[in-house]
Amino acid sequence: MKFKIEPQPYRPGASFLTLLEKEILRFKKIALQTIFAPVLMGLLYLLVFGQVLAGKMPTFDGVNYLHFLVPGLVMMTMLQNAFGNSSSSMLSSKIMGSLIFIQLPPFAGWELSLAMIGASIVRALIVGAGVLLASFLWSPPPMDHLLWILVFGFMGAALMGSLGLICGLWADKFDQVGAFQSFVILPLTFLSGVFYSINQLPPIFQTLSRFNPFFYIIDGFRYGFFSQSDFNPWVSLSVVTISGLAAAGFATYLMQIGYKIRK
């Protein structure tokens, strides 16, 4: 008996979309840990800080503290989950040896990197939307510029997904990723104006905050809600875009040359 294999028509981007679907399914299978747990954590932050500091922290004109807090917590949750998604995906694939199964097919380096970054963006947007929708149970914040919210949400998640991929390529064990998160990502996130306006800080700390790229992400994201920000939103958008493109480009380069994944 002879079998005839029919050639399949070429579909542009099919390999990238397949890899993206694989990465999305990876975190979807453990949604309790990757989706619901971060949303619950964001709500706990909102409940504790929103109630304890309400009326005690100065914010923007006409904006109560609970509303001020929501965009910061939404973005903080998105950034942490975007980083965690790509870093854990890459490192676990290296440790378990399953990375070889996507290295053998003729996938381009940019397809591998963009698929992991893309899945990180999807997870971050889902988690961020969950925290935002849950905040409506208390008091729905205004959303003056939806496009700004979406753009900063996308670019912030892309930047952190790229950094997570770079960290996953560099690390040899989960302890190294955990250390990077604890000593770099977490401090930069908490010192970026999530819980306060940097205008409350002494001048020297205001200046130092402007060297923190996370500040521009959160400040620009907050502008989309209130039409107010600590810094020019166009400058923030430029900083976030340039940082995101640079990080994604470097991650793609490392993937292309097989940094720490080819023996």
Write up this protein.
- The model has no long low-confidence stretch (mean pLDDT 89).
- Helix 2 runs antiparallel to helix 3.
- The chain has one domain (28-257).
- With 263 residues, the chain is mainly α.
- The chain has helices at 14-28, 31-52, 65-96, 100-103, 109-135, 146-170, 174-190, 203-209, 213-226, 233-257.
Structural class: mainly alpha
What is the total domain count?
1
Biggest sheet features: none
| H/E element order | HHHHHHHHHH
Query: Roughly what fraction of the amino acids lie in strands?
Result: under 5%
Overall outline: elongated
What distance lies between the first and last C-alpha atoms, to the nearest angstrom? 42 Å
Supply the number of helical segments. Answer: 10
**Total strand count, please?**
0
The percent range for helix content is over 70%
Keywords:
about 260 residues; mainly alpha
Secondary structure elements and pairings:
Elements: H1 14-28, H2 31-52, H3 65-96, H4 100-103, H5 109-135, H6 146-170, H7 174-190, H8 203-209, H9 213-226, H10 233-257
Helix pairs in contact: 1-5, 2-3, 2-5, 3-5, 3-6, 3-7, 3-9, 5-6, 5-10, 6-9, 6-10, 9-10
Q: How is this structure best summarized?
A:
Helices cover 71% and strands 0% of the residues. It is mostly helical.
